[in-house]
TrEMBL record:
It is found in: Cell membrane. InterPro entries: Cobalamin_biosynth_CobD/CbiB. It comes from Sulfuritortus calidifontis. This is Cobalamin biosynthesis protein CobD. GO terms for molecular function: ABC-type vitamin B12 transporter activity; threonine-phosphate decarboxylase activity. The keyword Ribosomal protein does not apply.
Amino acid sequence: MSLALSAVAAAALDRVLGEPRRWHPLVGFGCYAALVERVLYGNAASRLRGALAVLLAILPFVLLASATAWLPYGFLLDALVLYLALGWRSLDEHARAVSAALASGDISEARRRVGFMVSRDTVDMTPSEASKATVESVLENGNDAVFGALFWFVLAGAPGAVAYRLANTLDAMWGYKNARYRQFGWAAARLDDLLNFIPARLTALSYALFGRTAQALACWRRQAPAWESPNAGPVMAAGAGALDLALGGSACYEGVRHQRPLLGSGSAATPRDITRALNLVRNSLFLWLAIIVAWEALHA
């Protein structure tokens, strides 16, 4: 039962302790990745340089994580590694801070808090737009910060969780389609897409099971293909349908308003819906953990 124990222990640690306030490994990894970028970017960035950067950034830590398989009580170290890869409580705290600010009528604080979660402009957000942005972030990051890491942990142990979380971090650093990263960040973005392909669809299915199932599946089928991200589309469309909310649509990035495809079907998001989205992630996580425990018990 070591795999199941590690997964349950990691989720419990994350819920009780949250992310480390100081010396978070991902912060250190970000500094290391920035050094790799400075060394390899050069005067003319290329996809080859970017692929080499991804390899040099991720491989040493994956090899280090694989050492847990050879150590006594390695499942305890596995639990620690997975705990550091999860961001369940952090996602909950960020989202509830927005909800609390909106409930108290402090739109300035709500905008500031939303800015910690999304890349879009927040300075002129209305309460409805702040609620929508937060719900979208909760749904998408439910996959990125919880289910993706858990999936790869089950499939490949601690090395799988490390590879997934670091690839996700590199995508957040380099996966932009701008002049600097269009070529250099291509490998990071594609690797993140690949690693998220199955977890995103399992996340979408989980969301559907805990909401308006038929509507969630219909929104996933009809709306996800129009979304720019091949993995965020299913997750957010299914989540929006499950919650009976209208997401997507207009959003402002770097001073330019973009009309994104519509997601879901229903009413505009409110602060109450932030809590509903968090409950969707929580219930889905409990389901995943129950399945992991049951599966390992059956094959013990």
